[in-house]
Amino acid sequence: MAWWRIRHPLFLFDYTTVKYVVTQNRKVGLLYRIFQLTVMAYLIGWVFIEKKQYQAKDDTVESSVLTKFKGVASVNTTDFKIWGPEDYVYPKQGEDFLFIITNFIETPNQELGNCSEKSSIPDANCTKDEDCIKEEAVRAGNGIKTGLCLKTAGGSDGICEIKGWCPTEKHGKPDKATVLRQAENFTLYIRNFIRFSKFNFSKSNVKLNNSDDYLYLKSCLYDQIVHPYCPIFRLGDIVNKTGRNFQESAIMGGSFGIMIDWSCDLDKEDSHCNPHYSFISLGSNTTGFNFRIAEYSNDAEGKKQRTLYKVFGIHLQIIVFGTARKFNIINTIINIASVLTLMTAGSFLCDIILLYMMKKSTFYRDSKFERIAKNDKESPAKKMPEGPKRKFSL
Amino acid sequence: MAWWRIRHPLFLFDYTTVKYVVTQNRKVGLLYRIFQLTVMAYLIGWVFIEKKQYQAKDDTVESSVLTKFKGVASVNTTDFKIWGPEDYVYPKQGEDFLFIITNFIETPNQELGNCSEKSSIPDANCTKDEDCIKEEAVRAGNGIKTGLCLKTAGGSDGICEIKGWCPTEKHGKPDKATVLRQAENFTLYIRNFIRFSKFNFSKSNVKLNNSDDYLYLKSCLYDQIVHPYCPIFRLGDIVNKTGRNFQESAIMGGSFGIMIDWSCDLDKEDSHCNPHYSFISLGSNTTGFNFRIAEYSNDAEGKKQRTLYKVFGIHLQIIVFGTARKFNIINTIINIASVLTLMTAGSFLCDIILLYMMKKSTFYRDSKFERIAKNDKESPAKKMPEGPKRKFSL
Amino acid sequence: MAWWRIRHPLFLFDYTTVKYVVTQNRKVGLLYRIFQLTVMAYLIGWVFIEKKQYQAKDDTVESSVLTKFKGVASVNTTDFKIWGPEDYVYPKQGEDFLFIITNFIETPNQELGNCSEKSSIPDANCTKDEDCIKEEAVRAGNGIKTGLCLKTAGGSDGICEIKGWCPTEKHGKPDKATVLRQAENFTLYIRNFIRFSKFNFSKSNVKLNNSDDYLYLKSCLYDQIVHPYCPIFRLGDIVNKTGRNFQESAIMGGSFGIMIDWSCDLDKEDSHCNPHYSFISLGSNTTGFNFRIAEYSNDAEGKKQRTLYKVFGIHLQIIVFGTARKFNIINTIINIASVLTLMTAGSFLCDIILLYMMKKSTFYRDSKFERIAKNDKESPAKKMPEGPKRKFSL
């Protein structure tokens, strides 16, 4: 390569260029041309057009998500109720993590006292009092062991007595009857603001430039084909789009993701940079999701009591990701350069063939490699016509 | 290029070097030198000094944010109150998502019963009972339809009756009178711990090495110039710095981002790696932010009742991002190599000029390209003085 | 380099190859071979085997985290209680941000009224009434100034009177006596679903294919050696693994990170892509963590009162990060190419030595550089046997 050649100042501006040997070997020549074309096609077709490697990319998107649920459902708790978002959504403030109660097991009027632990908890099983260490909490249980082992009538093994909220939570799986039927029609509004700090580019998924936009938001409902950019989603649709059945998921609960993908080519104008919504199930069919809430109150005599709800429901996680791309000179050069370097591999290959697989190989080798005998003094002169008054240069 | 040349073992240590033709063409020589300098300047100036491409970078920062609000405000609800952080901040536990109540619409003493839905809700409008399907929830509404259409006196169209919390929420926009005046002076303390796992580097935005640091934290308030590293922010300042007016935003609410940018050159020492705070509005001027909270209680006769608050306020999102850079040999080589390859493009250009645009081009071409005639036998010999006993090599 | 040579169509398939000069200088030859081997070793050993630069990587992992705490503790508040997750975990819904109450300062029976501000608050200190501006909130305080400065008996300076919840919160540090002793044995279950969108690869840290998996989950407890993939963690272990003492941290609270690292080589099969759990302290030993909760109620005469809890506890942040790698042709080429280019630097070095540091340098220079005198007409002919009827080519 020519880039590093230095000369002593006098000949700084002599131009030095590589010497080539031209062979009229059509076979190798053709082969080499084909190779050149292949590499060029790869560079232009794949690297540039397909993979857009001439662009720099930022795949760390800064994101802010606001969410809001709407809709009401009738709930048959001990005191029959109507639930709005203020009741069935956790947390209330509308983050990117959402839990919508769709079912529950209610255990009313628990009071502090002693009773037997749930039999389903391994740590609470016992055969004698010694198995229930006093003051020790039951692992994954509901109370502190009192030291007694409550035997079942005539049975040899029993369950530890605990100090805690009694009676303990009801057994068994959640009941289809308590499901919030109307939950399927709840609507979720998502406001997502994103920023690619590397390119100092920001955008929101909600367009609110004029009153028409407001009207649109009041009425629209997300649909992949008809309303791909409407940020309002029906809960039932979200679940069903993941291939799960809503009414089933509503019983035991489930975990689902709303993915917002921002793939933006910033060499085009902003209007081409839009969110793409997709939906996935964040767990196997078998896994539900639940947690517990307690409502405390005082009974007639002012004794503290509580109602415990084990709530099952839909966990929604709004997952925002994306990539912004913009032309970048460094990336362009790196990719061109590396592909060009590839070419040398080609000439290497062709040389091998030329110098070892052709019947005139010997002759070609002599031409390509000019040997200098160790003690040969004149040979260089032979090829340097200007004789003695010649000048040297590197 | 020289890197791949192989020989048969005997001559493994012969040194083979490219042969050059030296022309004394000053024009092309000068041109080439200029090109060389340009490329060098680009490599050193832009790629290395400006873009620091010799460093590997990690732009996925792991972050943990803790926040804490301080300050109280007087609130004129039905029972006049003083609100502290335990009342006006959601969620309580201090995440990177914060909502500070600055205004509200209170609807006291709601009880379960039947009443007419809010007239502003499209789905609730009706002209006859048939329009109000029994047991159906009003979309984006407050209750379950009872099947009755309540006509306005003498009017032809009316509003569906619903079963829900009655009376329904008060109409209209939030009132300036209810705004928490003192909210502007609330202070937010942010503790941000970050980690660049790729370089196994961690740092916090809060420095607590000695008692002085504690005293500083007790008294300081963030200011871009005076206290750029003080992690305590005045709510009013945050909003105003985004170009919005706090007192206006306080009425309808708004969404704002506190961006913490960590740009760390890990080739320098840690003390150079500091957070840079900036503030942006995460929505247009017109969009507010609100959600609803219900406070349940029992009235004199023990009948369940609730007070519904539609709360408006400032949503703060703490957005942490950053890039860590550190010297990396692979990146360095890739960048140098690609730029060097560029040079070849230069010699290509110069050759074109030399071989086709100079008046002595023909002569230069003959010198650069040594042609071998198809059936020429002696020619190689001519240039190989050691005659027959010559050795071959690739 | 050979890649850019063009000819006029007639000789499109002539093969042109670089001309070399072969010197029998063993020293330089050996030197060059050594250099070649070094570079090759670097390319294969470091770049490919060690750094796997032939793979493209995605280091922005999309993640969804669900958490659930289990365990109970006895708490000695004014009305002695048993606390379950529904009481001591914030927020309830199980996000990646968790706060577990381990201690608290209780201030019971606060009522709205006038009293003196806490003396520890700088802004509340005063010497005369004028220091306490009426209607102004105390910065970082508990109420609104009434305009009075309450002097301590005989003292010259005093504390502003405030309107707020009185009496104000108890002074001082949290007490070891109130710590939730059983907290150390609370267990945390983490469900983490991750996705590398670039490679469209998803996985969960919880395996639930068959009933055995369920049984395993019911009984296992994370242990680096025995159960590295069990997603259930003992709170005490988490804290202790970070090098902090749990019982100490429980008093003032602390902030800890559970880091889940997904490093996946997608060229291998999925079973090799597993989470790696590690634990760090997100703050210095001295910093605790706390926030306040208020429980409102009505006293006998129906006057609103509240119990204020300043809760201290363990903040857990689940931090998910990772990198997925997969073979990519572009990366491979870029890295090979750049290293090959390196070789030229080697031949440069060797040429310098050969042409300037050998005693026969002059002779080598003449061989490598074929000078063309400005006005020399015959010289090219000398080396072009086919004389006049020669053809030109570039």
Automatic annotation (TrEMBL), chains A, B, C:
Keywords: ATP-binding, Cell membrane, Disulfide bond, Glycoprotein, Ion channel, Ion transport, Ligand-gated ion channel, Membrane, Nucleotide-binding, Receptor, Transmembrane, Transmembrane helix, Transport. Residues 375-394 are annotated as: Disordered. GO terms for biological process: calcium ion transmembrane transport; response to ATP. ATP binds at K68, F69, K70, T187, N290, F291, R292, K310. Disulfide bonds join C115-C166, C126-C149, C132-C160, C220-C230, C264-C273. Its main location: membrane. Signal peptide: none annotated. It catalyses: Ca(2+)(in) = Ca(2+)(out). One of its GO terms (molecular function) is ATP binding. It comes from the Eukaryota. Glycans are attached at N185. Pfam families: P2X_receptor (PF00864). GO terms for cellular component: plasma membrane; postsynapse. The chain crosses the membrane at residues 30-49, 336-358. It is a multi-pass membrane protein. It is found in: Cell membrane; Membrane. InterPro entries: P2X_extracellular_dom_sf (IPR027309), P2X_purnocptor (IPR001429), P2X_receptor (IPR059116). Receptor for ATP that acts as a ligand-gated ion channel. Belongs to the P2X receptor family. PANTHER family: P2X PURINOCEPTOR (PTHR10125), P2X PURINOCEPTOR 5 (PTHR10125:SF12). This is P2X purinoceptor. It comes from Phoxinus phoxinus.
